[in-house]
Structures are given as C-alpha cells and as structure tokens.
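Morning run. Coffee first, then this:
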Amino acid sequence: MNTDWIQPFNDALQQWGGSFGQLAMTSLRIGVIILAAWLIKRVLHKAVGGLRHHLTKGFDDREAIKRAETLGRVIRYLVSVVVTLVGTMLVLSEVGISLAPILGAAGVVGLAVGFGAQSLVRDYFSGFFLLLENQVRQGDVVTLAGQTGTVEEVTLRYVQLRDYAGNVYFIPNGQISTVVNMSRGFGNAVIEVGVAYREDVDEVMAVMQRVAAELREDPEFGPRILQDLEMAGVNDWAQSAVMIRARIRCQAQEQFGVRREFLRRLKKAFDAEGIEIPFPHLTVYAGEPKKGKAPAFRIEQQA
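And here it is:
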C-alpha cells in the first residue's frame, strides 16, 4: 500500500511539535525571568528595610530616623526601576528582539529628550542633591517655592507638601531655589506684642516674663521648651502701639503650639492687669468754625 501521501502530514506535525516546544521553552524562560525579577525586588526591598531598621533602632535622634526613612524610600524606588529595566531587556532578548539597535536608538532619543525635557532633568538632579545634602526629609515642616506645609513624600522629581488646611502641593525639585526648614534642632516661638503708648513697657515685659515662667512649669508645655523667655525689648513705635518682641526656644516643630498657648495666657494676664492692647479706631475732630458757619468735622483713622 502506498503511504507517500502521509509523509507531508508527518513533516507538518513534527514541525508544529518543534515550534510548540520552542514556544513553550521560551515562555518558560520568560516566566522564570519575571519571577526572578519579582523575587529579587522583594528581597532587596526587605533588605533595605531591614538595614534601615538596624541602623536606626538605637537612635534617639528624630532627624536621623527621618533621614534614614527618606533615603530608604528613594533606594527602594531606584531598586524597582533598575530591576524592572534589566528584566525587560532580558525578556526582549528571549523574544528574539536585538537589544543593540534599541540601545543605540535609546541613546539618540535620550539625547533629543534631554534637550527637550531640560526641566525634567533639572528636577532629578536637584532632587538628588536635595537628598544627598539632607535638606528635606519626610515629616519636616518647610517652606518651598512659596508654600509652607509638612513634607509627606520626597522623590527625585518632586516634594509633596500638605498645608494646615489639608491642601496638597506637588513641587518639582527644579523649582526649589531656597529651602526654609523649621524642623532642625530647635525652633524659636517669636512673639511680637503691641501695647498702648500709655502703658509702662517695663511692667508689660515683667508680665510677659511671668507668663513664660508659668508656661515652662506646665507639665504639658514645659518639656517642649528648651530655654526661658528671651526678651529683645521694644522693637518698634507703630502707629498706635509700642511693639515688644521676645522669643522662646523650643524643640523642633513645637514652637507653633508653644507660641499659641503663650499668646492665649498673655491675653488673660493683660486683661487681669488692665494692660491695653490697642486696636484700630476712629477719632472724630470738630474743626474751628468761622463766624456765621457751622462747625467743621474731620475724621481721622488710626490703624
């Protein structure tokens, strides 16, 4: 019996089987690459977290702890980017796509993008030095690009701030020219009080000293204060008040609450001592009348 007609089917079947086996092996290698990349990323993330915990577990300095947390987050981000990039290149190689033309094209495209996206490149460079020089850390209260708030996130491209009202600001690092950090070492609660010209400034300053001493003895606010009230004295003769300036050195980020509590207590002390706190008012002045005419009135406003 002639079976030559079966041979083409056998050849097709063997070819299909070989192609299927090759596809299966390629899929298996790709799966192994993806799984290995995922495992390497998880292991490195845990290693970075463990190293951060090991380095900071004996620290009492909040600044060092916050710096370690910020750097740890950035390192985990860089690890994710590098592992993902290497894994993608290996997968493309398994698929049969040559990497040499892609890398060459990427270099040309990167050069063009570098000219077209200079602000983005500036953001990354500024973010790198921002972290390297430890200018901003997560949890700091700062003023950046005219906005003040608490730092919620620091990346190589932007800093995320949340202000007192709950608004969130994303500030590109390239736009940050000056950093005002109110969370380093200590903070001064600056108090500038205006009293009426009739008041004895020595008496006023004595009342301020007494209120500050009572505040430092308070079990809640005392631990936040590092030094006694530092009296600068009369700072200005304003339009309707004598301005007296002083400051209290506090722990970092505690100066805001201490200042509010001091002003609250000082208002009650001024009321008890009868010390006048001036406020805007109007003075009505009757001018000198001419014969046969009604008196003239003039209104002066004092701020």
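The mean pLDDT is 79. Good start to the day.
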